[in-house]
Each structure stands twice: as structure tokens, then as C-alpha cells.
Amino acid sequence: MSKKVTKAVFPVAGLGTRFLPATKAIAKEMLTVVDKPLIQYAVEEAVAAGIDTMIFITSRSKNAIMDHFDKAYELETELEAKNKTELLKILKDTVPPNVSFVFIRQAEALGLGHAVSCARPVIGDEPFAVLLADDMVEDGERGCMAQMVALYNEKQSSVLGVERVNPADTGSYGIVKTPDTAEKYAPIEVIVEKPKPADAPSNLAVVGRYILTPAIFDKLEHTGRGAGGEIQLTDGIADLLKDETVLAYEFEGTRYDCGSKLGFLIANVELALLHPELKDDFSAYLKELNKKI
Ligand code: UTP
């Protein structure tokens, strides 16, 4: 019988060096786009995909994520007493009903592949999702992960979310090669982590959305240190490819690279322009600003 994707892994134990000093004491996934931390967008995307167990791979001194998804008794009591019902709803909505949160410590930041392997005892023998919250995807509809789960359910194969990037930027991504097809998805032939543009097999980049079969865990156990001296998820997937089909899926929606300062600023501007309370005033402000620059 086919298994459903009910668990998602959120690796949040990276050092976040590109955002220092903001990320000295908090995970970069707690940085806020308009009025919500990045990790909340990612959890909402997972919930929209039918996932009910959220597994965070976290690190020392980054407890804000655990606090964010916990009940805030004092604040709730205060807002209730003051009859601030709208704010109370916003506060309570951060913790979706019927969703479990699991926190696992990654003792050392040994790389994304190692972070994912830390989830093995909780995942067991099931397919699972991985969401990197600093890649934010806005599709205006069901969400990127829901698109991927639909494809997984149809094909029962691992699925990686991919998009075309500037060929000069391949060194920042895992890059895949697929056969030409008119479809939105294709089986991956080759995957390589952070190739120089001259060595890249294509400009089709893996962004932070994955559905993986549990076979990845055995592969990661034998994955040595790769690019940047880290245990790379890409290298584990390259090994998985030898045994199983792994699909690359060009999702619908806009991806914001919120792990970079420019991408993060762009996400704030574009999400503010979609925000029901802010969009009119913010758009008027931008038009004025545009006259000055
Ligand atoms: P990045 O490559 O973006 O690294 O990690 P980083 O450390 O977060 O950020 P910079 O480059 O220093 O600014 C990709 C994802 O993998 C997680 C990160 O939290 C991020 O979501 N990660 C990375 C871990 O959880 N553990 C690791 O050992 C490495």
C-alpha cells in the first residue's frame, strides 16, 4: 500500500553567517517577512500540503523557534482580558490545530545531509518532506509543497523542487540534469552540488523543497563530506538515484531566496504588496519613492 507524506523536516541548525549579526542568537528562519517569521510561512505551506508532524532540526541557543510554536499563556491571558480578539486569533493561529511539533538537536552543523539524517528516528519507514524555510515560495494558491505532494501521490517517487537560475549562479545550488520534456517534471539523470558554471550540467537548480523516500537515510549514512566540507543532501540524493527514480519538478510560484540579504528585501517588498492591510499604502509609498530614485 502506498504511504502518505505526513511528516516534514525543517533543518534550522545552520550558522546563518550571511545574516550576521542578526543571526547571532536567533535562527535565520526567525527573520520576519512583513509580519511573520520565515519558519511560519514554511509550516503553513506544510499544513496546506496535508502534513501534520513538523520536525525541526535545531541547535543550541536557537530556542526562539520552539517558543514561537508553543502556547503563549501570559500573552493570551493579557489579550483576552483586554478583549483584543483579532490579535488573540493571530496569536493562536501560529499553532495550527492537530499538528505535532518535534525538536531534534543537531549537535554540530555538519551540513544539510547530516541535519536531515538526524530526523531518521522520528520518520521511520515513510516518505517525508524537507522544507528550507529561507527559500520562500509564494504561489498564491495551494502552496509549493501541496503541488509536490500531489505529484508524489501520483508517481510514488522522490520529488525535488527545481527552478531555472542564472547560469552564472550555479555555484550556489545543487544542479540537476534531466531529459528534455514538455512536462513540468522529469527524472533526474545527474545531480551535483554547487558546480562552477563551466562544469554545471544545466541551470536547473534544486531549491529548498524535497519529498524523499526513507531510502535516503541509508545513503546519508555513507555520504562523506562534500562541497564546503559538509555532508551534503545532494550527494546522498546522487547515491539514491542509482536505485530509484527521483523527479525534478518545476513548481508554480515565485521563489524568494531569503537566505541572501537582497532576496530577503525583495520578499518583504513583494509580500507587503500582497498584504491586505498594507498593500495600498505601501504601493503609494513605493510610487512616491520611485520618483526620487
Ligand atoms: P545554508 O547553506 O543556507 O547555510 O543551509 P546556513 O548556515 O543556514 O547559512 P549561511 O550560508 O551561513 O548564511 C541550508 C539549510 O540547511 C540548514 C540551514 O539552517 C538551512 O535551512 N542546515 C545547514 C542545518 O540545519 N544544519 C547544517 O549543518 C547546515
What does this structure look like?
- With 293 residues, the protein is an alpha/beta fold.
- The protein has one domain (7-259): Spore Coat Polysaccharide Biosynthesis Protein SpsA, Chain A, CATH 3.90.550.
- 33% of the residues lie in helices and 22% in strands.
- Strands 1, 4, 5, 6, 8, 9, 10, 11, 12 and 13 form a ten-stranded mixed sheet that branches.
- The chain is globular, with a radius of gyration of 20 Å.
- It starts with 6 loop residues before the first strand and ends with a helix.
- The structure holds uridine 5'-triphosphate.
- Uridine 5'-triphosphate binds next to helix 5.
Topology overview:
Blueprint: E1 7-11, E2 32-33, E3 36-37, H1 38-48, E4 53-58, H2 64-68, H3 73-81, H4 85-93, E5 100-105, H5 112-117, H6 120-123, E6 128-131, E7 135-138, H7 144-155, E8 158-164, E9 174-177, E10 185-187, E11 190-193, E12 204-212, H8 215-221, H9 233-240, E13 246-250, E14 254-257, H10 261-272, H11 279-292
Parallel strand pairs: 1-4, 1-6, 4-5, 8-13
Antiparallel strand pairs: 2-3, 6-12, 7-14, 8-12, 9-11, 9-12, 10-13
Helix pairs in contact: 8-9
Mind describing the biggest β-sheet? 10 strands, mixed
Helix percent reads 25-40%
CATH superfamily: Spore Coat Polysaccharide Biosynthesis Protein SpsA, Chain A
Quickly name the level 1 CATH class.
Alpha Beta
Distance between the termini: 60 Å
User: What is the molecular shape?
Assistant: globular
Tell me, rounded to a whole number, the average pLDDT. 94
Which CATH-level-2 architecture? Alpha-Beta Complex
Strand-pairing-aware structural class? alpha/beta
- Give the tally of β-strands: 14
Number of domains: 1
Work out the helix count.
11
CATH-defined fold name = Spore Coat Polysaccharide Biosynthesis Protein SpsA, Chain A
Beta content: 15-25%
Attached small molecules: uridine 5'-triphosphate
Q: Output the helix-strand order.
A: EEEHEHHHEHHEEHEEEEEHHEEHH
List low-pLDDT spans.
none
Rg computed from alpha carbons, rounded to a whole number of angstroms: 20 Å
